[in-house]
Amino acid sequence: MSGVLDEEVVRRALRLGAEATVRIEAAGPSRVAPLEIEVRERRGLRRYIVRRFADSEAAANHAAVLEALQPLRLPFVPRIAGFAGEVPIEIDPEATPATGFALGVERWAEAVDALAHLHEVGIREGLRWERTPREVLPPAPPPLYRLGFAAHERAPAEPLFAATRELLADTPFGFVHGHPTAANVLFGGSGVAVVDYARAGFGAQLLDVAALIATSGLAAEERAALAERYGRRRGIAAARDLVDVAAIVWGVEELLLLPRRQVEVFGDDAATERLVTAARRIERALREPAGEHPLAAAIRSALWPA
After folding, report:
1. What is the pLDDT of residues 2-60, one digit of tens each?
2. Is 181 found in the same domain as 56?
3. Does 39 reside within a domain?
4. Who's near 88: CB < 8 A, 6+ residues apart?
5. 173 CB-near residues (< 8 Å, 6+ apart)
6. Interatomic CA distance for residues 148 and 145, integer angstroms
C-alpha cells in the first residue's frame, strides 16, 4: 500500500471519536504481512485488517473487487469498514487460515459451497476480462525442468499437458477468486471467510476449485467428494475427474511460483511455514489421484512412475 497507515489515518477512515484508542501492528515482519488494527471504545473492542501486497496492481485489484462484492453482502466476503485513501480497512473475520491445522471434509464443504457461490455472482470486475479462455490458462507444457524432472520424464508428459489445456478450455470460465488456497480460506466459529482478492477476475473456475481442494490436505477420496459436491452445485458432469486434471495443471504452476513467494515473505517464519505446508499438500494432490481421467493418469505415470 502507498502512504503511511497511522493512527490519525485510521481515525479518519473509521470516523472514530476522541475517546477511542487505536493499536496498529503488523501480523508478521514481511512487507506483505497484513496490518492488524484494534479499536477500543465504550461499546467494546473491534478488530480490523488491512491487507498488503507485493505490488500496486495487486493492491488495486483487491480493493476494486472487494468493493464490487460489498453490495452482494456475501457472508464469506469480508466487509469494508472504511477506506484509508484507496486502501480498504476490512472488518476482521476473526478466523484462522486453514494451513495451520487439519480440518475435516465437512468444514471444507463450507468452503466449496462459498467458492461455488462466488463463481455464480456474475460480476465483471478484476483482471483478465479482455482475454480469451485459452489466453488465461497456464502455458503448456510448463517448464518441468525447474521442478527437477529429467528429460525422459518430461518428454512423454509435455504433450499430455498440452492436451489438458485444451480439455480445460472447454470447462466453465467466468469470475474467479484467482488464488483460493488454504491460506486465503479462513475458518472460525461463525463460518468460513474467503479473503485476498488480488488475483480475482476472469478465469477458469475449475482451477479455482483445484486450488482450494489441492491445498486442503485431505485424502484423495475426500478431495474427490468435494469436487463432486462442487459439480452438483454448478451442474458440471464428471467434475471429480475434471478437478483432478485441473489440480495437476494448477499444482505444477503453483510450485513453479513458490520460490518467488518465498522471497516475498523472507524473514517471516510463520508465512514461510504456511507456504511449505501448502507445497506439501499440493505435492500430495499431484501424486495421489482423486479422479480417473486418462490424461491425469498418463501425466502421473510419466512424472511419478511406480
Report:
1. 456 899 999 999 999 999 999 999 999 999 999 999 999 988 999 999 999 999 999 99
2. no
3. yes
4. 50, 62, 63, 66, 67, 80, 82
5. 133, 136, 202, 203, 204, 205
6. 5
